[in-house]
Protein 1
Amino acid sequence: RQRQMCIRDRLFKGDVLRVFFHGRIISVAIVLAFLVGCTPSSEDGEGVAPANSSSQVFRWKMITTWPKNLPGLGVAPERLADHLRVMSNGRLDIKVYGAGELVGGMEVFDAVSQGTAEMGHGAAYYWRGKIPAAQMFATVPFGMTAQEMNGWLHYGGGLELWRELYKPFDIVPFTTGNSGVQMGGWFNKEILSVDDLQGLKMRIPGLGGEVLARAGGSPQQLPLAEVYTALQTGVIDATELVGPYNDLAQSIHTVAKYYYYPGWHEPGSTLETLINKGAWESLPPDLQEMIAVATRAINEDMLSEFTAKNNAALDVLIEEHGVELRAFPEDVIYKLREISKGLVKESMQENDLSRRIYSSYMEFLESVENYHRISEQAFLEARADASTN
Ligand code: CA
């Protein structure tokens, strides 16, 4: 492969001063550099993709834990696949499957691990039965918000620990979506005090469910598809879901009366893309980079969409469907918070890695909380006060 000195190389190596003072030359030169199609290459040739990689097409399957195209959660993998197809000029061609189309929603992790599909989309707390510490990478009761999770995962060492945790399963995880603070859930029974939690049959998975159990409730594990009927027939008194935008689309308001806040159990649920390690390593560096960047874009995109659409959906639920909005009483929140602190720590003692993940998460939360108390929280309180005057 013949290497030629290109205009872009000269720009960086020789003509810095001239370019600095003559902005117009930069734009002309950069356009020319792209026209002649030369790549900036280091002296030792590192980072230059093999010549044959530019034409190879990768046709991948992406399995998900969501119903196909479910608003919010389910459109994320579709958008990711669309971005990657365009960005790669068709070289990364990903077909997305909804839950149950290729494998069941709860089988996504194993299927990607075994290479049945190259890629998956889900949330790490679904794999808690196999890997308890995975829950820390989805959400933790009274834990980090979306903004804080992103800070920890991308700049606080979180992502490295996540990759270490999934490594024995031959899976490489990426952040790919965040719901923001969820709602507390749908209830057919009012919660006026801690006493009302006694015997409460609520569909609430994961650590949140364990917290409810210790508070006297009866957490139920039900697939999303069965929640509607279970509420309608009184098999359960309550269920948590996501937030107004997502929940309105599922018509849960037709079988439940009260909509409680806040979602103490899911303050910033992170969704994940799972990639089979062998499949990941088979990709040339440019396609790997596209996946790294596109998953980050979808991670931010989902939070933006929920932020934009939850408000309007909540209005529809209240004004058109007569849903009654309720806040959890203070004593209930206090009780659940006190239980959560101990329970999360106990749940993360399985091995050295679990303990390291727990410590990293909690140390980050503590430090960011100190700052957010005088920034985000102080500002939101200041703004709220101003708006009531
Ligand atoms: Ca939820």
Protein 2
Amino acid sequence: MESPANNNEIQVLAEYVWLDGNDGMRSKIKIFTSLDATITLASFPLWNFDGSSTGQSHTKSSDLVLRPIYFCINPLTRSGLSREYLVMCEVVGHPTNTYQNLLPIYEATKNQDAWFGIEQEYILLDLQGKLYNDEKFNRYGRDLKSNEYYCSVGTGRAIARPIALEHMRCCLIAGLTIGGINSEVTPAQWEFQIGPLDALTVSHQLWLARYILIQIAEKYDAVVSFHPKPFKFLNGSGAHTNFSTKSMRETGGLAVIKSAIHKLSLRHSDHIEVYGNNNRQRLTGTNETSNYETFSYGNCDRTSSIRIPVNVVADGCGYLEDRRPAPNCDPYQVCRMILKTTCLDNFDGGDE
Ligand code: ADP
Ligand code: MN
Ligand code: MN
Ligand code: MN
């Protein structure tokens, strides 16, 4: 005899995802039954893992605790037999938990209704570390530095489109706010955009979108490189971070944007510090990048740290684009720094 409660049980398949101690991501799947009529964050129990195998603790006290902080539909497992979710988790009390550093800054600046839209670029590599399908397409003698790859169409030009498209479809199925995709200047280089969303949501979603991409690439023997400059002589990748507050989006917003840019100019090195690893190799001042050492800004200027897009100049309000973050940046940290510098009332920004 089944008890009445059993009739209400649903099977949940939850893929828990977290940030490890080596700037990477880890996951494991938990299958459990739930009595919740509606699945909320609280439906996902705390879980633990062996931190000594993820670069996060020592074997003697290896257990670390995963606490769910965000979830969405899982577009990857597709068993069709359970309610399936991807669950972003924080590692409780661990130095790698950058979400907890963003949280208080987010709360303190919530009234300014800040939005972030992040353009995530990446380059697909093969198992030897070369550009994906390079051997195949080099037979045609194409110049890797030519202008034929950006927003391209055609065999040997738009390389690994099935990966980029499958990723886009999965992000949509997951319910993530993906804004679009395009191929980029380097062969097998692509971009997708997440946002605009608040600082917490954009960060959760960007991490999960990266996770989905990495897992899809497994099927194609492709390796996703989030390195800012995998090849010295080819265009690198970035994670341009578009940012606005309510007052920037309203009439007269351009003045607020300029004042935010001034604040950012005073904190260049603090920002660069958390904008991703190996970013110096990318920010050379060439290939549409700014200089690593110096802050600059400009209207429509793709060689500046901060660009004010053409539509924003025309409208007199909108958002700014911080072009400095690297593709391997941690959005929890990038969003924290931008909010802290531009939105905290008690900001200690020095004099004019
Ligand atoms: P680019 O011209 O630099 O390639 P994209 O179209 O790739 O620009 O990306 C622009 C990003 O800016 C998108 O992620 C979009 O969501 C975001 N965005 C648009 N409006 C705003 C806004 N008001 N505040 C923050 N982000 C915004
Ligand atoms: Mn873009
Ligand atoms: Mn781009
Ligand atoms: Mn951009």
